[in-house]
């Protein structure tokens, strides 16, 4: 008698309270994911897709308040040019509720514009260029779940202010295609307008003019580089032979995502220059993403490893290591679930993309590897590490400082040695450096061109594309004859032909 009665009681009690108690909202969500099938990308489908599926399964399995969300995930190829955009246009009949990716800047630009116009939220662990920071119009529905290049630049602002450095050379490799290094250092140029920066681009295909590079290094206090590991070694060796590594100049390289290309032994090639390179690298410091882990991360790492092994493809280098893209796209699903749940509780539907987007911004949540903090502009605050050689005999590197973006503070670690960062002889100020480089300083940083910014004549000629492919026009100085300008023109042409062919 008693058990039956209490069961009945429990039944009515549950009936009465269940909406309040469980708080589950059920909804089907159509997700369209753009990732390259080409495994040469760190964010290829093979590496990232398992993380997205892991997040989907975990939300279901944990039975929490988000377990009523059913994510229908469809993967599409991305080619870092136009594929994502065209795919989206072609399916215009069925608009997804959420888009994840693309990562590459140019492809993301067109895709996010269309998605914003269609009121569809986009979350990407890419689209890191400075131009995407302007969310007032074309990129209104973009949420960036990985720290952008401007966030990385905050690290340099903090270091430069601390050591009162004034003048720096931004030295980068520009492939005129995806232009990752260009966009990386552009973030620094964009943020640090109070400093005297000039820039020099080198082509990945030709041998760089080493004399010119050394002259430019000589004129500056600090050199910030973004390029392939072998080329960095060549430059460091050349600088070392010219006594430019004797403490009057400081070198940094920015390597955010590929953890196997920096740190211990990054100078080592097994050739006769190893000894020289090790000495040269004593003045080379690396800025990279600060990686955190927590117990859940272990299981995640193991599961990712299993998936990659199962997919088994031949051309994958360090596939088993979890990078920021893998982590970011996992956390994207969590963030969307939190925002959608909150929006629906407040009476909105999944179709109100702008409402859900705003609810993803200005919040902190627990991601797979630790806390994820989104700023009020929908961009993730970044934590970065500074690595330096701490043992010159062994040539070993250590993290000597961390920068926390959420509170803007620097944390110095035991390995930090102030002498290492103190310039022995300050360069006399040069009043006006003639920047003939046509690099970031003059033309390229016309902003933040992910697509177009041309001379006046070009503007008219390409009016249509200016409208469709620009990120912002933020012209600092005039110069139309630069190499980068030409690259960009070519770029516009190819965008145009692709577009009109569609
Ligand atoms: C994959 O991408 C790399 C680098 O962008 C390129 O060289 C290669 O040809 C691509 N492979 C395929 C199969 O498209
Ligand atoms: C990562 O860096 C290593 C060492 O420099 C390089 O061999 C490898 O190709 C890089 N991987 C990617 C995906 O860039
Ligand atoms: C480099 O090696 C040293 C000593 O072996 C170790 O303490 C340090 O953590 C290593 N650094 C990296 C980045 O692997
Ligand atoms: C990870 O966790 C899941 C669920 O908790 C479990 O089924 C799975 O076996 C774990 N994987 C590993 C490699 O430990
Ligand atoms: C979406 O939400 C906003 C408030 O953020 C509201 O003004 C707008 O009318 C809603 N749109 C739709 C289609 O419900
Ligand atoms: C961001 O969130 C904080 C508290 O979480 C709130 O005080 C602040 O007003 C929010 N900012 C904006 C612009 O919404
Ligand atoms: C800044 O944030 C980091 C990481 O969240 C924390 O360890 C540090 O103590 C914070 N610093 C200050 C001054 O709040």
From TrEMBL:
Q: Which GO terms describe its cellular component?
A: membrane
Protein name, UniProt field? Receptor ligand binding region domain-containing protein
Indicate the principal place this protein occupies in or around the cell.
membrane
- Lineage summary: Eukaryota, Metazoa, Chordata, Craniata, Vertebrata
Q: Which InterPro entries match?
A: ANF_lig-bd_rcpt, ANP_Clearance_Receptor, ANPR/GUC, Peripla_BP_I
Q: Which residues cross the membrane?
A: 440-465
Which organism does this sequence originate in? Sphaeramia orbicularis
Q: Which GO terms describe its biological process?
A: signal transduction
Tell me the keywords, alphabetical order. Glycoprotein, Membrane, Receptor, Signal, Transmembrane, Transmembrane helix
Compartments where located: Membrane
Domain (Receptor ligand binding region) ranges = 48-390
């Amino acid at each position: 008698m008693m058990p039956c009665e209490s069961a009945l009681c429990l039944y009515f009690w549950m009936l009465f309270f269940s909406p309040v108690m469980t708080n589950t909202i059920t909804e089907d969500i159509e997700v369209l994911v753009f990732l390259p099938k080409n495994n040469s990308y760190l964010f290829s489908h093979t590496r990232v897709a398992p993380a997205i599926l892991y997040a989907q399964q975990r939300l279901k399995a944990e039975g929490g308040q988000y377990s009523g969300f059913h994510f229908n995930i469809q993967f599409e190829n991305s080619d870092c040019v136009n594929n994502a955009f065209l795919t989206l246009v072609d399916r215009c009949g069925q608009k997804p509720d959420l888009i994840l990716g693309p990562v590459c800047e140019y492809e993301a630009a067109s895709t996010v514009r269309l998605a914003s116009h269609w009121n569809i939220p986009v979350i990407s662990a890419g689209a890191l260029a400075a131009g995407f920071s302007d969310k007032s119009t074309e990129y209104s529905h973009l949420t960036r779940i990985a720290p952008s290049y401007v966030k990385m630049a905050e690290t340099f602002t903090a270091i430069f202010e601390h050591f009162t450095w004034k003048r720096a050379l931004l030295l980068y490799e520009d492939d005129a295609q995806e232009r990752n290094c260009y966009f990386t250092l552009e973030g620094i140029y964009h943020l640090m307008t109070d400093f005297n920066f000039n820039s020099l681009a080198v082509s990945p295909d030709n041998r760089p003019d080493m004399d010119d590079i050394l002259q430019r290094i000589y004129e500056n206090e600090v050199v910030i580089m973004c390029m392939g590991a072998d080329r960095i070694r060549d430059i460091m060796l050349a600088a070392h032979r010219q006594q430019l590594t004797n403490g009057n100049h400081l070198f940094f390289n920015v390597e955010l995502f590929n953890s196997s290309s920096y740190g211990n032994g990054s100078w080592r090639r097994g050739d006769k220059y190893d000894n020289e390179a090790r000495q040269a690298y004593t003045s080379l410091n690396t800025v990279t993403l600060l990686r955190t882990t927590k117990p859940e991360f272990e299981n995640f790492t193991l599961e990712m490893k299993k998936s990659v092994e199962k997919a088994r493809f031949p051309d994958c280098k360090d596939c088993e290591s979890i990078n920021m893209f893998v982590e970011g796209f996992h956390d994207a699903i969590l963030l969307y679930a939190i925002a959608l749940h909150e929006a629906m509780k407040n009476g909105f539907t999944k179709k109100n993309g702008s409402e859900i987007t705003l609810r993803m911004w200005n919040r902190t949540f627990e991601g797979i590897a630790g806390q994820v903090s989104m700023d009020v502009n929908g961009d993730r605050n970044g934590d970065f590490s500074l690595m330096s050689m701490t043992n010159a005999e062994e040539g070993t590197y250590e993290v000597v400082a961390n920068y926390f973006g959420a509170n803007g503070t620097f944390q110095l670690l035991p390995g930090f040695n102030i002498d290492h960062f103190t310039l022995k002889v300050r360069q006399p100020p040069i009043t006006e450096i003639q920047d003939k480089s046509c690099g970031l300083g003059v033309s390229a940083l016309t902003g933040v061109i992910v697509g177009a910014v041309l001379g006046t004549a070009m503007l008219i000629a390409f009016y249509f594309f200016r409208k469709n492919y620009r990120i912002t026009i933020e012209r600092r100085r005039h110069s139309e004859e630069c190499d980068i300008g030409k690259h960009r023109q070519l770029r516009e042409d190819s965008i145009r032909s692709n577009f009109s062919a569609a």
